[in-house]
Amino acid sequence: MKESEIERHLVWHVERAGGRAYKFTSPSQRGVADRIVCLPGGDVWFIELKAPRGRLSPLQKMFADEMARLGQQYACLWSKEQIEEWMHERIR
Description:
The protein is α+β, with helices and mostly antiparallel strands. It has 3 helices and 4 strands; from the N terminus they run αβββαβα. The protein is about 40% helix and about 20% strand.
């Protein structure tokens, strides 16, 4: 499964729940999360998406650590099943 398929799956689930999954790029800062997900009720997440055999780069690991230090919500999701579980925990 390609990362792009996993990303489309996330976008579909988020939009179906009434939220938005913004594609995020930062030209001056490498390693940032793929998507900023805004869910109903003000729940905002930085989401990194990976194919099942993918790996986080050192810069992506640094970004994840920075988000934790700042108290931000961050998740790395590796499959369609993980996306569905993650969404189920947030949208009830």
